[in-house]
Amino acid sequence: MDTFALLMQGLSVAAQPINLLYALVGVTLGTAVGVLPGIGPATTVALLLPVTYKLDPAGSLIMFAGIYYGGMYGGSTTSILLNTPGESASIVTALEGNKMAKAGRGGPALATAAIGSFVAGLIATIALAFLAPWVVKFALAFGPREYFALMVLAFVTVSAAFGDSTLRGLVSLFIGLTLGIVGIDLQTGQARMSFGIPDLLDGVEVTTLAVAMFAIGETLFVAAQGKRAPETVEPVRGSLWMNASDWARSWKPWLRGTIIGFPIGAMPAGGAEIGTFFSYAAEKKLSKHPEEFGNGAIEGVAGPEAANNASAAGTLVPLLTLGLPTSATAAIMLAGFQQYGLQPGPLLFTSNPQLVWGLIASLLIANLMLIVLNLPLIGLWVRLLTIPKPWLYAGILLFATLGTIGANPSVFELGMLLVFGLLGYGLRLFHFPIAPVVVGLILGPMAEQQLRRALAISQGDFGVLFTSPISATLLALAALALVVPLVLRIRGRGQLLAQIASDAD
Amino acid sequence: MKHLAAAAFVAGALALPGLALAADYSIMAPAGPGGGWDQTARAMQEAMTAEGISGNVQVINVPGAGGTIGLAQFAQEANGDPSRLIVGGYVMVGAILTNKSPVTLDAVTPIARLTGEFEVIVVPAASDIKTLADLVTKLKADPGAVSWAGGSAGGTDHITAGLLAKTVGVDPKLVNYVAFSGGGEALAAVLGSQTTVGISGYGEFQAQVEAGALRVLGVSAPERIAVVDAPTFKEGGVDLSVMNWRMVAAGPGLSAEQVAAITADVQKMAESASWKKTLETKGWMNTWLAGDDFKAQLAKEIAATEAVLKDIGLVQ
């Protein structure tokens, strides 16, 4: 009841007209930077910091929160329509979303992403308000060995979810893992596989690889087919809006995505994209239409988008309770707090309750504003697909290039974009799945660093991986996920697996 | 396009009516937005604009490899251009050595040291290590059993841990240093009792220390400082002081007059009321040192850092 009263008080702060205006400016800017390539929410907040110095703390933090949530919304639009994920958390959305868009179902894809984001944002923000102290305890229980076990589980479930051929999937995954080795090793400070090129010292940028593989690779593929291309892009088929079946297939993934995304976002070394991977794998396992995955399954958009937004709210848990920024945007918001002499941490909730609850309340308002702003825009967005194909793909190429240059103005980065684009084209040509390459690049370095940290702390004793209850459970789950399908297949009871999958929900 | 729009928005919001100002500056922060160097560059931008030192100050982020990527780009582009500045610091000294960077600080013109922060060693409140002496005893008994959580390998935190071991007669190679990436992952590891101790700038740990979740064993300052209520390393029996400083430098190939003009502008900024206010709100310490004094100090630190990195085994 006390928390509830504080939240109500916060809503009254956030509902002041001037703060509503800041929230509106924030979500509009955030959506814009999410849609446009090359400039993310982190850069936007950094650019605005000096400006907001003159504003009052509540107003500017409300605006930053709007930008943060808005950026998450906007990111899905380009993924779905143009197959150009602008940030690592919307890579999974592109997988099914773009297939849907090409089949004339861009409207429902955008709608399920927007409504899923709203639902997840709403639930996760309320969870932030009421559960933050407990969630943060759970998140702190994760040390290097627990993270490593989580990564192992991610590898097993995610690599099983992509494509039909295990061998081809593994080949793609290992390309990604190899690319993940490039750059300075955090534990020793030594450069690996950088061949003396300074641009490679920080490794391969995930978004550069993703945009190259998805957007450039596909553009080359379509161009190479010329007039023989069987694929036709249909701008709209059927309703622009979600039909009854879409709703029925979306609501459970929204909720599951939220439950997966929020705690992972709250983990200091979790990362928003990990939640989207787990959500995608879970939806594919649980779906009644697993055959649609890879061809535009709505669950594959609804779940990961919800996970993405829930983890954005999750990120605020360690920021507000511990003063721990776990994403670039959160780091800049921390700088924003410090600009007003406020130190986020365990004392912030007691020393500045109006501010904290005002921020949480304004997240709720920003969330509502975003859906009001975005749903009517869907009709406008899908018109993009009516552009004739040569123009559309030329536009995608331009968009992808601009995005890469905008994020990192370097000729070498552009060269990498083209080389990886060619690689993506080659993989497509020989029917290798694309997503595992990107997944390998993201998960590989994380798994490696966490394993090495765990072993450094234990002074080389592998036993520690199994002595923590959390990591032992996660590793056991991973082992089950790996072994059970094999056993069932060997026994010739593949149909049983399908049965379990369809009964599971 | 968006970049332009955002920049125009910022410029528009900052434009003060009817001001005709002196030289334009462009400050490179050789790191991503949000970090210490970025914040320093943006604070300079703000102070220089507010004080009328310059009408148009831009901040450019070139992230990567402990600042060495930005440094290499800067040394090339800013040659003979008095409008270009770069922010850097002690972390860059270590990164240049461990990355074997072909471009070193010799390729730029150091202007002044601006701010600094001392390192602290912390343990969770429940830890049985109560004082720095307890830690030293443990370290001497079995160096590997003490795990240190801090920032990237070869950074200030790692160097401080190595120097501490060396000072108390433990081989720095045996220090069990666990590197975490930025953004407070090291803090999370200490809070969750994943490692024995945590080592970083005080700012990283401040909120948790004030809340009583972490205990400070020692501060790397030569004398007690106001913000931290804890003994110095020296008081704890370890004769060592380390400071993680930040500086500003200009490009190579400038005339003595140009360097003097830049130094005057930076000094005016550093003495301004708005800069002092920034230092206060951000909890930064004023460590102003310019000219030949700074150059001498820099040379001394580079030599000491190279020695300890060799001892740790990161530099051959």
Please provide a written account of the structure:
Chain B: Belongs to the UPF0065 (bug) family. Chain B: Keywords: Signal. Chain B: This is Tripartite tricarboxylate transporter substrate binding protein. Chain B: Pfam families: TctC (PF03401). The complex is a heterodimer of chains A (505) and B (316). Chain A has one domain. Chain A is built from 22 helices and 2 strands. Chain A has helices at 2-14, 17-35, 41-52, 57-82, 91-102, 106-140, 144-161, 166-181, 206-225, 244-266, 272-286, 299-322, 328-339, 348-351, 353-374, 378-382, 389-407, 411-429, 435-457, 464-467, 469-490, 494-503, and strands at residues 183-184, 191-192. The two termini of chain A are 34 Å apart. In chain A, strand 1 and strand 2 form a beta hairpin. Chain A is globular. By secondary structure, chain A is mostly helical. Chain B folds into 2 domains: 22-115 and 245-292, Bordetella uptake gene, domain 1 (D-Maltodextrin-Binding Protein, domain 2, 3-Layer(aba) Sandwich), CATH 3.40.190.150; 117-219, 3-Layer(aba) Sandwich (D-Maltodextrin-Binding Protein, domain 2), CATH 3.40.190. Chain B has 11 helices and 10 strands. Chain B has helices at 2-14, 36-50, 68-77, 90-98, 132-141, 156-167, 185-191, 202-210, 256-270, 273-282, 291-312, and strands spanning 25-29, 57-61, 84-89, 109-124, 147-150, 176-179, 197-201, 214-219, 243-250, 285-290. In chain B, strands 1, 2, 3, 4, 5, 6, 7, 8, 9 and 10 form a 10-stranded mixed sheet that branches. Chain B is globular. In chain B, 53% of the residues are buried. At the A-B interface, helix 3, helix 13 and helix 19 of A face helix 1, helix 2, helix 3, strand 6 and helix 7 of B.
Radius of gyration of chain B: 20 Å
CATH topology of the largest domain in chain B: D-Maltodextrin-Binding Protein, domain 2
Give average pLDDT of chain B, whole number: 82
The radius of gyration over CA of chain A amounts to: 22 Å
Q: Which parts of chain B are unreliable, with pLDDT below 50 for 5 consecutive residues or more?
A: 1-21
How would a textbook summarize the main sheet of chain A?
2 strands, antiparallel
Oligomer: heterodimer
Largest sheet of chain B: 10 strands, mixed
Q: Report how far the terminal alpha carbons of chain B are from each other.
A: 46 Å
Going by helix content, strand content and strand pairing, the class of chain A is mainly alpha
How would you sum up the global shape of chain B?
Answer: globular
Order of helices and strands of chain B: HEHEHEHEHEHEHEHEEHHEH
Instruction: Tell how many strands the DSSP assignment of chain B holds.
Output: 10
The coarse overall form of chain A would be globular
**Percentage of residues assigned to helices of chain A:** over 70%
- Judged by helices, strands and strand pairing, the structural class of chain B is alpha/beta
Pfam families (chain A): TctA
Protein name (chain A): Tripartite tricarboxylate transporter permease
Keywords (chain A): Membrane, Transmembrane, Transmembrane helix
Transmembrane segments (chain A): 25-49, 61-82, 109-135, 147-163, 169-186, 316-335, 355-379, 391-411, 417-443, 464-488
